[in-house]
Write a structure and sequence with these properties.
Blueprint: H1 23-26, H2 29-35, E1 40-44, E2 50-52, E3 61-62, H3 63-66, E4 74-79, E5 82-88, E6 105-107, H4 109-115, H5 118-135, E7 147-150, E8 155-158, E9 164-165, E10 170-178, E11 182-187, E12 199-202, H6 209-221, E13 225-236, E14 241-250, E15 263-268, H7 269-276, H8 293-302
Parallel strand pairs: 1-5, 10-14
Antiparallel strand pairs: 1-3, 2-6, 4-5, 7-8, 8-9, 10-11, 10-12, 11-15, 13-14
Helix pairs in contact: 7-8
Length: about 300
């Protein structure tokens, strides 16, 4: 059994350096107007990419370069005395109505998470998730009326029926499954050759997380879970998930991949260790990149963490 202090240090993305969400400021438009001129603004296009320089680093504009007030920009939060906002790239304007001069390079979140400092990629993830929600919730699901966003972009209000709407987060479990000696991993057909990952799936209404673990593992691999426990979580804005990381003990059943997976199989400790060390360059197992909690869960299993309670 492994104690708390022996868990591998989490290195996955979108967790470290999170902003102070400063909810009290969301309902204070005068305060947001005051913070805007010196605030930093992430500009995202319709595909969720942001602006970068020639070396691939973040370019965050100042509010004063884009206009006199935040307008429809989303207030992300505070880092000390510095405010952070997000806006759609198509809305980016100077106060005189001309487009601001910015680099033309566009960066996606996965690439940014692998290169940028944790704070910057975490802010980018937050901005991408909220803007995605706004883009897909322009009309009320109850009456079809147009949605107006308020409270710094975090609340949608339908003027027609009065219903309020809030950003959606979809909980999903992701789980390292072991039979005591081996680790169960699966792969999707569109992944790079030899890439395998931990199994994952969305929580259904009326389910506990533990029930979701057992159901998803059975549906995707035919393997029966005996017990499971929670280890950590990761926001995963592709587009709006929260990944809840588990480790589970299962029967040593022969895996039978369902239609979601191309393959599912057991891997022994030596195979997993070689993959974590990056020794399988031309053959053998490849595991998830370090930005994902999947990689950390695999590291936890390899370090000896089990599905019993921590000592």
């Amino acid at each position: 059994m492994t104690s708390d202090d022996r868990l591998p240090t989490p290195r996955f993305a979108f967790v470290e350096g999170a902003l102070d969400r400063a909810d009290v400021l969301r309902g204070n438009p005068d305060a947001l107007d005051a913070y805007w001129p010196n605030g930093r603004v992430l500009l995202l296009d319709g595909d969720g990419r942001t602006v970068g320089d020639d070396e691939g680093w973040l370019v965050a504009a100042r509010g004063s370069d884009l206009g006199d007030a935040p307008g429809d920009a989303i207030f992300l939060g505070m880092r000390g005395d510095e405010s952070w906002f997000a806006a759609r790239l198509s809305d980016e304007r100077h106060g005189d109505g001309q487009r601001a001069s910015l680099p033309s390079r566009r960066l996606d979140l996965r690439a940014a998470a692998a290169q940028w400092a944790p704070f910057e990629s975490t802010v980018f993830a937050q901005a991408r998730a909220v803007l995605h929600w706004q883009q897909r919730h322009r009309f009320c699901g109850a009456c079809g009326g147009a949605i107006a966003f308020q409270r710094g972009g975090w609340q949608g209000h339908c003027a027609q029926c009065g219903l309020d709407h809030y950003p959606r987060t979809d909980p999903a479990v992701i789980v390292a499954i072991t039979d005591g000696e081996r680790l169960l991993l699966g792969r999707q057909a569109n992944w790079p050759a030899r890439r395998y990952s931990t199994l994952a799936g969305f929580v259904e209404p009326g389910e506990t997380l533990e029930q979701t673990v057992a159901r998803e593992v059975m549906e995707e691999s035919g393997v029966r879970v005996r017990s499971s426990r929670y280890l950590a979580s990761q926001p995963w804005p592709f587009p709006s998930s929260l990944m809840l990381g588990f480790i589970a003990e299962a029967e040593p059943d022969p895996p039978q991949a369902n239609e979601e997976l191309e393959d599912a199989r057991w891997f022994d400790r030596d195979e997993v260790g070689a993959a974590l060390r990056g020794e399988n360059t031309e053959a053998g197992l490849l595991v998830s990149p370090s930005i994902s909690i999947s990689r950390w869960l695999i590291e936890c299993w390899h370090a000896g963490v089990d599905a019993g309670r921590l000592a």
